[in-house]
Amino acid sequence: MSRTLIRNVAVLVVPEHGECRVDEAQDVHIQDNLITAITPTASTGATGVAGVAELAGVAEPAEVAGAAGVRGEMDVVDGTGLVAVPGLVNSHTHSPMVMMRGAAEDLSIEDWFNRRIWPMEVNLTPERVRVGARLACAEMLLAGVTTFVDHYFHADQIAAAAIESGIRADLAPTYFSSASQDGIDAAIDTTRGLSRLHPRITASLGPHATYTVTDEDLKRTADLARAESLRIHLHAAETDDQTQASLDNHGVTPIQVLNRTGVLDAGALIAHGCGIHESDLPILQRYADRTTVASCPKVYLKLAMGEVTPIKGLQAAGVPVGVGTDGAAVHNTLDVWEAIRMVALTQKQREHDAEWMTLSDTLRLATRGSAAAAGLADHIGVLEPGRQADIALVDLAAPHNQPVHDPRAALVYSVRASDVVTVLVAGQVVVRDRSLTTMDLTEVLADAKSLAHTLVDLSKGGAIQHYAP
Amino acid sequence: MSRTLIRNVAVLVVPEHGECRVDEAQDVHIQDNLITAITPTASTGATGVAGVAELAGVAEPAEVAGAAGVRGEMDVVDGTGLVAVPGLVNSHTHSPMVMMRGAAEDLSIEDWFNRRIWPMEVNLTPERVRVGARLACAEMLLAGVTTFVDHYFHADQIAAAAIESGIRADLAPTYFSSASQDGIDAAIDTTRGLSRLHPRITASLGPHATYTVTDEDLKRTADLARAESLRIHLHAAETDDQTQASLDNHGVTPIQVLNRTGVLDAGALIAHGCGIHESDLPILQRYADRTTVASCPKVYLKLAMGEVTPIKGLQAAGVPVGVGTDGAAVHNTLDVWEAIRMVALTQKQREHDAEWMTLSDTLRLATRGSAAAAGLADHIGVLEPGRQADIALVDLAAPHNQPVHDPRAALVYSVRASDVVTVLVAGQVVVRDRSLTTMDLTEVLADAKSLAHTLVDLSKGGAIQHYAP
Fold it and tell me: What is the rounded distance in angstroms from the CA atom of residue B330 to the CA atom of residue B322?
């Protein structure tokens, strides 16, 4: 049994509704992988900071006292001057694509897929995927990202990197219908295997998209998902062009495809959804208890996709929305702080309403929403007793955050990933004083550097898929 | 006479047209405030890296040799593994507003002005402005911003902070027509005084905007500007709503107002210009040799202004465009890297064209464009002999930039302000190994913290102005 105490830290509190707040001077008590209590610092029966009493409801007072009694054996992290936030969640990414960072710029979505990414991906090998995933895990952990929701090839290698690094992950092994049946079956078997691998790893089924996987394969996937209690993570209605093409070619929207194939009934994480129409919302509402959408707006602007995710409509339909980066071959970073800020900015722009997507709503989306997108709504995303101890400690002392009139504003609009000091996942300190404790960063970077050229080599010709939605 | 040598650094080269590039392994030779030569590292008559020969054209070979001969007396900065970029320019800001960072969130533009900012600004005092400006200079220098173009009250205090910190600044003392004639005259006198104060300080006339300064006062300002060879820096056509209101109330666009009052003829930096109409472009084209526009897109999204600056049209009209942050009371940071990225992203979105605002075009805008916006087109913005030695050294070694397939992509889409290691302004090392050399940061932060509450105090009532364009 391991015990950790984060002493004297300000804690971001994200209620289900209403205003978020930051409670000053709290102690966060952790036992093994869980938060057991959050109590006012140095209080011995004092009334404490507003709101703490209710948070501490789950805690066992005797246990907390016991922990205090053996403080010498506890890992005590000094939180003075820091803000504890729920570890960030990257709710949609392709982590190994960090290996192609900056290698496909200033391209239309068609050229990005057909002239760069899918031709480059003929170069994928298990080793290269693992090296990329290790780099991605390092980047994310150092930035306070404690969970990522991934969709990629050789997912067993990504799992290995995640387990080694200490990060939490939900992994969907990608497949196209253009693959052989054996290829599809292998991806599905990988999902099955991953879901039993490690307490920090969950797995989802990963059909690529409604335009690269046939209705028949989607139906098979949905049946399997229901039978084996697996989630489905896929791309759908990424752009309005895709929705129009689907209507033109099949007479239905991508969301209607997900409905008629049973994918929505089985439960799905939909990546992007910028092309979700008003008429799709009642369908999604029917499955709101098992549907989530991940929004990655930097990508929508960069690829000039024309729309961003219609979050207002989705929220009105009760569908949880999370924040993601997509792969670094287009987002260029796996920086979820950047993604959160872009969600707030682009949503205000989309709705022509500066009073919409408030600080509190943005932080709720980034925490509770992203936890739901990861399929972990009851386990992560909120700092309270009984939740996983996935925590990022953020230092707002640097000039770009000062003075702090409102720490919530700092977290949404001025913080940098480099302000993250210490990170815990499942109670383990994986970043301490801005350094990884779990991996040798020099080695991770050297490996990535030595293999980087192999990933962007177009000399072999061919492509793993063609984009023509 | 002081000499500095930046050894073995990669140099960002930004030509007037065509592709930017990064030349590896260069030595940047600096004498007093100027770059005197850029030569391949450790070359003794070797042919060197492509493009360097032409850059070194201005250099005196004898001087360079002489410098090498007295290396012991030179400040030698090791640039190994770093990229030298032209010091960034914040081409429109209100620096002391860092004191209100995070104090006016989730508000419409009307409420932002009328319920928060202008009521808060009744609290301005010279001391508070100076404390804010010192914090702003610290934030900017640490992020590699070497010049800022400011528009604010008590500009003499801002000049003092700029001089102390070592940053370069163009300062426009703000005035409204609602002020007394004495108030306007005092602002104009401040401009005159500042323009003779220090080699790193230039000054502009600062009428606030077309909707807060009368045509008569704009005419007086334009006459004065022509007579005394001063530039005018003002807000105009910030939103399309403002342009519509101007058309409804006066039958002319804000740009037409600038034209008929002589402001364009005198030479102007126009902040924002999101409401510039197609029909305004031929007017601006006529004064393209003395007109520039500053674009601060994070603000346009955050305030849901509906439009961003029409950069494509302005560039077609030959009008230089720079990048800025606006004040931190709405942008929340003075991070020009963030502003540059937002320009690229929002311009691709605006034009529905992912192939527009390329890496090279974005970097050109951020360097040559912003130098023009600062009125310093011939002095800063490019690293070449004869230019001011305003240089930021950036480290791309951290995981979020790796691997580096294209350093230009890293500079636009993945770099963080915290990657800036060393900064020179006019040949002086003002940031070394991520620390300010010119000011005591602890003191700067403590001063800001102690006065922060005084700036956001709304108890006095009143406002310095009312927003009703």
Answer: 19
Distance from C-alpha of A89 to C-alpha of A292, rounded to nearest angstrom: 14
Return the domain boundaries, chain A: 3-86+383-436, 88-373
**Is-contact B389 B424, C-beta < 8 A?**
yes
Inter-residue contact A380 to A35 (CB < 8 Å): no
* Residues of chain B numbered 160-219 and touching chain A (CB < 8 Å): none
Reading chain B (469 residues) residue by residue, the pLDDT tens digits are 899 999 999 999 999 999 999 999 999 999 999 999 999 997 544 333 333 333 333 333 334 444 444 455 899 999 999 999 999 999 999 999 999 999 999 999 999 999 999 999 999 999 999 999 999 999 999 999 999 999 999 999 999 999 999 999 999 999 999 988 998 999 999 999 998 999 999 999 999 999 999 999 999 999 999 999 999 999 999 999 999 999 999 999 999 999 999 999 999 999 999 999 999 999 999 999 999 999 999 999 999 999 999 999 999 999 999 999 999 999 999 999 999 999 999 999 999 999 999 999 999 999 999 999 999 999 999 999 999 999 999 999 999 999 999 999 999 999 999 999 999 999 999 999 999 999 999 999 999 999 999 999 999 999 999 999 9
Pick the CATH number of A88-373 from 3.90.1150.10, 3.10.180.10, 3.30.420.270, 3.20.20.140: 3.20.20.140
Q: Give the tokens for residue A350.
A: 């989309």
Distances (CA, A) of A28 to A8, A56, B9, B199: 8, 10, 46, 53
User: Exposed, middle or buried by CB within 10 Å (0-12, 13-18, 19+), for A41?
Assistant: middle
Cα separation, B107 vs A377, in Å, equals: 31
Q: Is B182 exposed, middle or buried (0-12, 13-18, 19+ CB in 10 A)?
A: exposed
Q: What is the pLDDT of residues A260-275, one digit of tens each?
A: 999 999 999 999 999 9
For residue B37, the SS3 value is strand
Cα gap A5→A38, rounded to integer Å: 10
Closest Cα partner for B14 from B415, B431, B412?
B412
Q: Is A18 on the interface with B (CB under 8 A)?
A: no
Task: Extract the tokens encoding A332.
Answer: 């260029």
Instruction: For the domain made up of A3-86+383-436, give the CATH fold.
Output: Urease, subunit C; domain 1 (2.30.40)
Report the chain B residue with the minimal C-alpha distance to residue A351: B304
Nearest Cα neighbor of A448 from A150, A128, A156 is: A128
- Out of B300, B400, B403, the one facing A417 most closely (by C-beta) is B400
- Where residue B148 falls (left for φ over 0; alpha for ψ -120 to 50; beta otherwise) is beta
| Pair B343, B421: CB distance under 8 Å | no
Cβ pair B363, B20 in contact under 8 A = yes
A303/B102 Cβ within 8 A: no
The two counts, helices (H) then strands (E), for chain A are 20, 17
> Does this model's pTM top 0.90?
yes
Closest Cα to residue A356, out of B109, B106, B332?
B106
Q: The tokens of A460 are what?
A: 């072999």
**Spatial contact of B157 and B163, defined as CB atoms under 8 Å apart:** no
For residue A340, the distance in angstroms to the closest alpha carbon of chain B comes to 13
Q: Is A300 on the interface with B (CB under 8 A)?
A: yes
Q: Peptide bond before A403: cis, by omega within 30 degrees of 0?
A: yes
* HEC sequence for A217-273: HHHHHHHHHHHHCCEEEEEECCCHHHHHHHHHHHCCCHHHHHHHCCHHHHCEEEEEC
Nearest residue of A to residue B298, measured between CA atoms: A345
Interface of A with B in 373-412 (CB under 8 A): 397-407, 409-410
